[in-house]
Amino acid sequence: MQDAPSNGGRRLPNRARVVRDRREEAASVLQPSDVVRHVPKWLQGKTERRAHCAPTASVLRDAGLPSGGTALEHARIRFALRLRTLDAAHPLVRRLEAPPLPWQRATKLRCVDALVPRAPRPILAQSHFSPGCRTDPTEGRTKEAAAEHFNAWWSQLGRDTITVFSDATEQYKDGAKLVGYGYAVYRGQTLARTGSGAINSISHVFDAEAIGALKGLQCALDILQPTDERIWMCIDSTSVIWCMRANASNTSQWAFLECHTLIDRYKVGIKWSPGHMGIEGNEAADELANTGANEGRTDDDRSAEPTISGIGTTAKALADIATSDWWSQCHPGLSASYRRWKLGYSVTKPPELRLPRRVLHRLLATRRAEIPKRTTGASRALRKLSRGNPVLRHQCPCTANARSDNSGWFPYELRLAKTKPPLFNRYLAIGRALPKQHIQSTKAPP
Description:
By secondary structure, this protein is an alpha/beta fold. Helices cover about 50% and strands about 10% of the residues. It has helices spanning about 15-30, 30-50, 55-65, 70-85, 90-95, 110-115, 145-155, 205-220, 240-245, 255-265, 280-295, 310-330, 335-340, 355-365, 375-385, 390-395, 395-400, 410-415, 425-435, 435-440; strands at about 5, 10, 160-175, 175-185, 190-200, 230-235, 270.
């Protein structure tokens, strides 16, 4: 006969009997009514703790981050802009230019391609180097000194030298965008020819400067004589001069490439003429540019098409619209204490993130009306600093309005205000004025 298992001479308890006894004991102590009575309290505690969590929309806004849907829409817009800058031989471009079949639906690639307007595609051109391509067009002079030096140089030119002055303008009239250019061609100091025109409104003044310089150079070549010594292009935009001397930019690339060909063929010189400094040719070109923009007369060439920089601005506007649409949908669902601040939303770093962490915590908690009525360590440290600093004492709302109901940063009445508190800008000034020792001491431990 086998003995029962033992533990040091003692018999082990029967497991089944122990489990049965504990079940009976629990059933006799805890009734079903107790379970029903305790579960609502547990759910209520969970709900209350959940209610203290900040909404995702406010967290993203305070951090300057986009939501998931907004980030995806921004990626689609960036990809659409990238498709516009691809070379014509790129495989994706060939797929886009292939005509779709009648029974096919628009693919994701074609839908993205339709987000921004079409523009002349840049080509893969060889690098361009000309004399002075690495020299600063200003030569280290100020506008006043450069204008005086230019007038002295231009006044001693003979009639066998042609100078081409070009300028551009970008303005708004009755809500419509106007972009135009103008040029004036001089033989010596005598005005020979003038011209002006407009380009597509989906562009910028940089494009008009490049196109105007090309049009002026072409006009100068029409009156070129065998006895003429040299042609000079006088441009007031240093960025355009860099692209004329060296590599062309993607926007209005065709204009720069044509200028490169003519500059290398006819040994054309390029000189900086500071704008709005009393230079005769530059002032004449500026007036012609205003006339061309207001008349709105465009040539039948690629200047009538949008430019890469213009559709880039359109893409940025689409991204801003996507961001504002998401914020307008989420804003009504936020709490009234947060909405009364009337905060905007942009995917950039908010300025309040420069504040110390404890101060920033109080500011963010105030927006959500979560500040308890007690003074924190950050407020006490700020009051201590402001005692010997009249600037901080004047800017700090805690020391200027010391009350029994002062909760950290704001008085109690200010937290119940209907409009955005006027003290927000003072917090940024206080954060900049705080000594580095205090900023380090207020940082939370890692």
